[in-house]
Amino acid sequence: MVGVLRSWTVYTPLVAVLLLGAVWGRKPGTALTVLVALVLAAAILAAVHHAEVVAHRVGEPFGSLVLAVAVTVIEVALIVTLMVSGGPETSSLARDTVFAAVMITANGIVGLCLLVGAVKHGLAVFNAEGTGAALATVATLAALSLVFPTFTTSLPGPEFSGSQLTFAAIASLLLYGMFVVTQTVRHRDFFLPVENEESTKDASGEEHAAPPSNREAWGSLGLLLLALVGVVGLAKVESPAIEAGVEAAGFPHSFVGVVIALLVLLPETVAAVRAALRNKIQISLNLALGSAMASIGLTIPTIAIATIWLDGPLLLGLDPTQIVLLALTVVVGVLTVVPGRATRLQGAVHLVLLAAFLFLAVNP
Fold first, then answer.
1. Alpha-carbon distance 194 to 49, whole Å?
2. pLDDT tens-place string over residues 13-27
3. Per the record's keyword annotation, is Transmembrane helix included, yes or no (predicted)?
4. Structural domains in the chain?
5. CA-closest candidate to residue 9, choices 270, 222, 237
6. I need a surface site. Which of 20, 184, 196, 340 has the fewest CB within 10 A?
7. Residue 230 neighbours by CB distance under 10 Å
8. Cα 81 to Cα 315: distance, rounded to the nearest angstrom
């Protein structure tokens, strides 16, 4: 079984890239669109596997950082490529996708992992210092990049001026960089799983297995990059079908950003839930909040640079309903994080907030 799994994860990135070369620049029919979707899903799962191999080699919290950055690379590439070729309708795509990523990670992944961990292990235990620092950084980044444009007056509409966008991009990059240094160098112990008798007893054999060799880790890193190329390219090929499906369902065009976020965060979700099942809730929270942070801290600077050649406005400001959802998410997140442990109730509250976001995205 292990041999089959390894073969599957090795060949899937290659198949994805070959399929990308075959369909790039073409308008695929229904059968080919379905095939692209299947290979895209397989490439995402292969990316999860190879990211976890690299993570096992470098250890925590570096492993969570690897997957978070890898997932964000997919998101940024998708946003930029769709905005370059999408016309005026994509002026709010960056905002829609980044906000959706924050809501999915801070409510969906966090809530699901807390619920899974509490149901299986009785109580979800984590490090409040590290998780609180991550949540504070996410809240600050979200306010700087997504809330302030709604209230600035230099330009009409929820849009930054050039200097304001430059400030937001630099501040986002600096904050994200400082957090990474804090997480990996200065206070690494704040982001390590809380070890107790229960977590030691429930840890899987995989958790205690010897790390992969340098050769295996480098091989997985190469296949991870290859899988990411395949995911980005195939998602771009699949984007007309996504937009057509959203339109056919009668959903607002902004829901395309939600679909993109759901797609690119699938690897993160799978890895986080697996960690929660092993009673490693801190790893789950590192993945969730780290991805939310990277989504803003890396996407906004990239989009700011891309505006040099992008036509049309860049709408980043959230509407009042979205601001309320973001504020409620931050308040609930703080109340969840402060005790350093959570029950299934906290997980359910976060999941209800995600459900509210998805419902209001469909029925604004």
1. 24
2. 888 889 888 887 777
3. yes
4. 71-204+239-362 (1.20.1420.30)
5. 222
6. 196
7. 27
8. 17
